[in-house]
């Protein structure tokens, strides 16, 4: 898919930042030239860290590798848990999966529940920006129509993001995309039964339309470690006329502090690899992105 290599080819940087999210843990520093596992580095000494919330053994988390009754089937479907990577086979060393993008300066799982890939779903809901007369607004410099998407402000780090989240065991990606959007952008978890039924009807209209799979694979996420990482499927659902989303009231819920429609452009500063996904949507929809002529591939 166009654009995928752009994301994959970058030497992951957010996955090497310190302190590790939600902690004071400092990663061992990994210079760009030593990220790849093929580069020999005998003195590599990563910090070990798995958050207390993960070690407590919630439903969404694996046990520690050392536990005798835990024998995960890596690189395959393991009961209801999907341990296959969207980027192909990953290596196992000393019983632990190895991050396919390279070293991060930290071993263990950090805040992530699963050893190996932790699968997420990112629904990108878009509409055209319109004036009071209902006509699409054109950007004065690029001459292209301006696209808007639904963004949430994450409670954990305060950054604006796509309203996505982790796929539950056994859950289809399509169901996870719809559920996450409902929970984070419509506050569906706090609604009455009657309100939930109405939201479900509206979401069905939106999510049963043609859609574009924007990206599948590894995400440069600040929660990643040498043994656990986030992978996502980012999917664009576009409301061409705006009628569906006009009837839906945005309301932040679950992990979201705020929610709003945001104009798409290269000036956006978003969480993890989200800016790159949004750029791909703008390209696919032939919408405004930059005031400069397109040149090469820019990171977020």
Automatic annotation (TrEMBL):
It is an enzyme of class 3 (hydrolase). Residues 1-29 are annotated as: Disordered. It holds the Pfam family NUDIX. GO terms for cellular component: mitochondrion. Monomer. Interacts with GLOD4. This is ADP-ribose pyrophosphatase, mitochondrial. Residues 128-284 form the Nudix hydrolase domain. Hydrolyzes ADP-ribose (ADPR) to AMP and ribose 5'-phosphate. One of its GO terms (molecular function) is ADP-ribose diphosphatase activity. Belongs to the Nudix hydrolase family. NudF subfamily. Its EC number is 3.6.1.13. It catalyses: ADP-D-ribose + H2O = D-ribose 5-phosphate + AMP + 2 H(+). InterPro entries: NUDIX_hydrolase-like_dom_sf, NUDIX_hydrolase_dom, NUDT9.
